[in-house]
Amino acid sequence: MIDPLAWLILLPLAWATLAFLLGPGRGAWLGIGGLAGQLWLAVGLAQKVGAGGRAIGHSVGGWGAPLGIDLAADGLSTAMLLLTQIVALPLAIYARAYFKADDPAGLYFWPLTGFLLAGLNALFLSADLFNLYVTLELVGLAAVGLVSAGGGAQQIAAALRYLFATLIGSGAYLLGVALIYGAYGTVSIGTLLPLITAEAPRLVWIAGGLMVLGLMLKTALFPFHFWLPPAHGGAPAPVSALLSALVVKASFYLILRLWLGPFAALADTAASLTALLGAAAILWGSYRAIRVQRLKMLIAYSTVAQLGYLFLIFPLLSGAGALQAGVMQAFAHGLAKAAMFAAAGVLIKATGQDRVDGLAGAAERLPLTLFAFGLAGVTLMGLPPSAGFLAKWQLIEAALAQGQWLIVAVVLAGGLLAAVYVFRVLRQAFLLAPASRDIWPVPRTLEWTAFALAAMSVLLGLRGLELMQLLRAGGAA
Amino acid sequence: MTINEALPLAVLASSLLPGLVIFILPEAWIGTRTTLNLFGAVAKLALIAVLLAGVQAGEDYGVRYAVLPGLDLAFKADALGLLFITLSAILWLFTTLYAIGYLEGAPHRSRFFGFFSLCVTATMGIAMAANLFTFFVFYELLTLATFPLVVHRGTAKAMRGGTIYLAYTLGGGALLLTGIVWLHHLLGHSEFAHGGVAAALDVQQYWQLKIIFLLLIAGVGVKAALVPLHGWLPQAMVAPAPVSALLHAVAVVKAGAFGIVRIVYEVYGAEFAQSLDLLTPLVVAAAVTIVWGSLRALFQDDLKKRLAYSTVSQVSYIALGVSLFGPIGTIGGLVHLVHQGIMKITLFFCAGNYAETLGIHKVSELGGAGRRMPLTTLAFSIAALGMMGAPLTAGAVSKAWLIDGAQAAGKEWAIWVLWTSSLLNAAYFLPILWRAWFGKRPEAWPQEHIPARSWRETWWLLLLPPLVTAAATLAAGIFADSPISPLAWAKLIAEREYSRATPLSTSTF
């Protein structure tokens, strides 16, 4: 019997190591095969957790806490695992076609991606604060490596900025963990749960603040978003897609996990502030996305804005539906943003440039890509039928239930602002094309994988029932 | 799945599937594309014929499935929905024929017909939506599907019109969504039902219901072009003629008007809305729109713009009839939903014919066009006279019922509004007819694309649709009392709406 919990971590580690041994630029099929296996494991796990309605645990090597390492999968973590594998598999297929054999940017793509995914999966499954730190570092370092790969001076600068941000973020988190350990002598989330109360010593409050702030920095919540646009906008398209769709969600997941778990007693005080930052992120990110010239920067700023929605749920978590709205938004944005970066990669390859107003005429030759971009845009705008729309609906309903009118207004305004920047790109599809226009041929695989991701983000909007049922498992909801 | 569940889905699929296939067809496969288009349109008509017979016999057609816990995508084909569906499906067939002729040789036809089919699918979804959630899904889909049609030509002017269109409709959509979610939150559902569902709420929540009503009506009012939310409609005139025809007669403005009908009758219920004093503001807004649209139309030299302002005015007849409290006004409003569609689509077909055949875009250029294109001008004249409410046309029937409805509701001032509008209609339509029939023919037409061959003044695909719809304008007027007329169907709906006890009256007794 294969234990999906352990294998979801071991499998990517295994193919990453093998890809590294095979040498630079090799290992694409290993990665795709491994990811197919991971997806199968994640789907199986989701069925098991969803049907059982409770969390599944696993003690590595048969040694349980406090001595060994405990893994646990409840509804929330299973959902995130599912999202990770669903997004990563098409992106792996995309990346294989995207990187030419001698492309310096793709030399270490496969091993780094493998380690990144192993880190992500481990993060979603870990049940103690220190292991979470280790996975956080693994994810961060692999991501920095991916951003810097084969880049010029500008890209290295972006990667360095990213590296500092991620190190400061995890440093603050580690400091918090140390303080917690000093206070309670344990780092297991399950053990800490009953210990931390609203009467906790000042030190614990500081620890909690440090951890959450560090994670916010890693999630690029406004005003900590400064590192994200250059890093995500400068990396090769498959890397941008992985980072925007998945990596920033990992630290968000961790905040959510802490907020719902050990820090629940402390969290109320910071909820409004967090939502305020989220609202600012939506407005500022959208504004920047409307103004920037470069296509990938537009998409990167859109990520800043879309991450804002995730933080709007914190004041609503005491009521029903907020967690569901957050996870639905994470899915919607994950799928749509991966599709959008993938489509942008196609457009940039085909036109040889990265300016929004240089795209006129590309649509005629690449209708499928523009269509994929449009569908992803529909999700980001929160228009039906799409997962983004369901997320918006759930968020508005949760906000109304608690009389949070400001959140309702921000969500609606955010949708309209998103329409402005999405249609900035889409209108290029309908403009009359300039007479002379070089469009380089692009592998069809690239176009179809982008489309598949976008289509998934829309189709989830027609069937969100199973995902919501999954969330109920393990008392996470 | 039973046949009664499958039929509504089949109605959706009959335009959705051809549309999706058309998207991927190569541009040059004209025959395949045309076949698919026409097959879809005819299949849809056949399905609707079955539905019409079934609903008249009292059958229930509906299907639903859960999207989220407590949130269903639900369809039902009831009498009211079928009124709109039948109108759309028939006019879709003729607009498709017209568009095939109109776009002969133009680029991007696969894209055009793909979105065209999506647009009709969205209209069907709006008509068959069984709750506000489903209604909203298709209402927004309609916005997205029509944008590419509005900007189809890709010129700077088209882009500007399209941007304004989006700004209005997406803004309206946001208001509508707020209203719907709020109502859903209060009620726990958003189903449509005869006599309304909102009355089930507590008296303390009535103030919220009033705000929600405002949000909902403002949301659908954008598409229904209620003044002051009508600004997009004249701008969207940059679209090709078949699109304008579709926007004005079938899809977009009617989606808005239909939304008003559903909200007033099946969310709030006419009696309950009346008891909350919600209908009077609506009736005033409709009256203002009717007069304002007509006044603005007077001063437009651009033919399509004049027609656009005429639409602003005429669509509010529907809102007026609906918000006049009483069955007679209801019948007048509902029947006008159909009649305005038939007449306005004729006018836009004819305007497109003038533009395509002779290059005429302005009223001032129309001199002598009647002798060069007698059949087109005849169709135009019939529809224009219908708009004025001339006897023997569909317009006369609508107007008679609306006036009776106003009388019955004790709102004599509304009768004056209708008469004023008729006078204004005459003031902006009669000069067009006069000029076309009796005006001096210019030395040369602005841009003659299609030469006349014997009696065929233009290509037959352009000529046939307006002639058929003009004939329908007459038929709907002359045979209004026959059992298969739009009027008969509107009576059936009003009967079912007003005969059932509303939740309000059952709870008070």
Structure commentary:
The complex is a heterodimer of chains A (477) and B (509). Chain A is mainly α. Helix content of chain A is 72%, strand content 2%. Chain A has helices at 4-22, 28-52, 75-98, 109-125, 129-148, 153-184, 189-192, 202-219, 228-234, 237-260, 264-291, 295-312, 322-351, 362-365, 367-381, 387-401, 405-426, 444-459, 465-471; strands spanning 56-59, 70-73. Chain A is globular and about 70 Å long. Chain B starts with a helix and ends with a helix. Chain B is mainly α. Residues 501-509 of chain B have low confidence and may be disordered. In chain B, helix 1 (3-24) runs antiparallel to helix 2. Chain B is 73% helix and 3% strand. Classes of the chains: A mainly alpha (477), B mainly alpha (509). The A-B interface holds A 324, 367, 371, 378, 381, 383-385, 389-390, 392-394, 396-397, 400-401, 408, 412, 415-416, 419, 423, 427, 430-432, 461-465, 468-469 and B 23, 66-69, 71, 73, 111, 133, 136-137, 140-141, 143-144, 148, 151-152, 154-155, 158-159, 162-163, 166, 170-171, 173-174, 177-178, 181-182, 184-185.
